[in-house]
Design a protein that fits this description.
Elements (H helix, E strand, L loop, with lengths): L9 H17 L4 E17 L2 E19 L2 E7 L4 H15 L33 H16 L5 E20 L4 E19 L2 E11 L8 H13 L10 E7 L1 H14 L2 H5 L20 E3 L22 E5 L2 E2 L6 H6 L14 E3 L6 H8 L2 E8 L9 E12 L2 E14 H6 L1 E4 L4 E2 L3 E3 L2 E9 L2
Parallel strand pairs: 7-12, 11-17
Antiparallel strand pairs: 1-2, 1-4, 2-3, 4-5, 5-6, 7-18, 8-9, 8-11, 9-10, 12-13, 13-14, 14-18, 15-18, 16-17
């Protein structure tokens, strides 16, 4: 790790975490937990063939939470010298003395701590120099600009490389930590025709640089996506099938996860209250959570509280099999943590037999959505209304681009009206899902 630029080794930050726990105990804390993290990164962007930005980041920090019975205090610092660590623990202890008691706070149960932590192959440093990154970015942008003469401007291409290292420890005796990496290539360009301008983008991200799409492929996709949006036309307000392209389909799954997450549930601010074991979606929907995928973008053997993660079926044939809980929300609900403190792990949505072209034919006439605007969903009621852009489809064929429209429905209805889930799966984050076809939504225009 030293040659990768981290200020401390993994063993050194493990020792820091143990030192912090000892200080907390000496100050009278009945329990404590600590997270020490390091990160380094480089980002280079070019625009119209010229270098625009070169950025470096190097961050470090420690956060500690202490418990005096049911009173909790939290403090953090970006200074990792010995005295700063001691002062931060003392600050957390002082805060705890002034907080109200909370019967649900505290460490996760000791018997749930992970006792098996293996290497998930998450750390792949990319020793790309600034000069090399600039050339890769130029190649990416050039590939996009070369797609069509109507591409007249660029928002730039970027190459990002990042590495991180962390350790989590608590007074149950649990200590775990490891290094990770994440790299990306992205590009965004602008096209113009008959006074109409459109932009679009594409990107690729992975733990290892060798798993990224090539710069040419990213640029080509960005250029093609931009050009196809030209010559958009208006449509009349209607109720039709709506196909969410794979990059947007993950947002539908995110809304589902938010609705079955602890905070929304115990606050009774979810449209899926008391849904465990019930049919919440079409039988087409099957979601499997697998925290142990090698090189996975959301993989780990333990969550943010040290609780062991386990593969599980989250939704089966549209029936909700489990919630997404950390220990605090689980206690509020009278349940047990699901190992999701910090969020979900790799969610793999089962694909159907059709690719995007097959889904268009299945849809017949309707709307293919490729961009969403705003945040128009009410988590309490499930009401869904968002600005959108995309393509009007007739007889399974894209006819023309559309924009300045709004799509509306209710998320509970949308989930139950899933007709098909595509095989065009994208892996760009913690959710792996293909395009999703909804049977009917309201599409509003002028």
């Amino acid at each position: 790790m030293a040659k990768s630029g981290f200020s401390y080794s993994l063993d050194e930050i493990k020792q820091m975490s143990q030192d912090v726990l000892k200080v907390a105990k000496s100050l009278g804390a009945s329990a404590s937990e600590v997270d020490v993290s390091l990160s380094v990164g480089q980002n280079v962007s070019v625009r119209l063939g010229e270098t625009e930005t070169i950025e470096y980041n190097r961050d470090k920090g420690m956060s500690v939470t202490v418990y005096f019975g049911q009173q909790k205090g939290h403090a953090s610092t970006s200074d990792l010298n010995s005295q700063a660590l001691k002062d931060t623990v003392a600050a957390a202890c002082n805060i705890a003395k002034y907080t109200a008691k909370d019967d649900f706070c505290g460490l996760a149960d000791a018997d749930l701590m992970a006792n098996h932590v293996a290497d998930l192959n998450l750390y792949h440093p990319w020793s790309v120099t600034v000069e090399e990154a600039i050339e890769i970015a130029k190649t990416c942008e050039q590939a996009a600009m070369a797609v069509d003469t109507r591409i007249v401007n660029s928002e730039g291409a970027s190459i990002s490389s990042g590495e991180g290292c962390f350790v989590y420890s608590n007074s149950h005796g649990f200590t775990g930590g490891y290094a990770t990496s994440r790299h990306s290539i992205s590009c965004s360009v602008i096209a113009e025709a008959d006074g109409n301008m459109q932009r679009d983008y594409w990107y690729s991200t992975a733990r290892a640089a060798v798993d990224l799409d090539s710069a040419q492929a990213v640029g080509l996709k960005a250029g093609e996506r931009t050009v196809r949006r030209l010559n958009s036309k208006k449509i009349n307000t209607c109720q039709v099938p709506v196909l969410f392209e794979a990059p947007l389909a993950s947002g539908l799954i995110s809304s589902l996860v938010s609705a079955i997450s602890g905070g929304s549930l115990y606050r009774k601010s979810s449209f899926l209250l008391d849904s465990l074991g019930k049919q919440i979606a079409s039988p087409q929907l099957n979601i499997y959570e697998n925290p142990h995928v090698e090189k996975g973008l959301a993989s780990s053997y333990f969550d943010n509280e040290g609780v062991a993660t386990k593969p599980r079926q989250l939704v089966q044939d549209g029936v909700l099999q489990g919630y997404v809980l950390g220990s605090y929300s689980a206690r509020k609900l009278g349940m047990q943590t699901t190992g999701n403190a910090g969020g979900n792990h790799n969610l793999i949505v089962q694909s159907g037999e059709y690719d995007l072209a097959g889904l268009l034919k299945c849809m017949g006439t309707g709307l293919l959505v490729t961009e969403l605007l705003g945040h128009g969903m009410n988590m309490v009621t499930g009401d869904y209304s968002r600005g959108a852009a995309g393509f009007w489809v007739e007889n399974g064929v894209i006819v023309h681009a559309v924009e300045e429209i709004t799509i509306a429905s209710n998320m509970a209805d949308m989930l139950k009206n899933i007709v098909e889930i595509g095989s065009d799966v994208l892996v760009q984050g913690s959710k792996q899902v293909g395009s999703i076809l909804i049977e009917r939504m309201t599409v509003a225009s002028e």
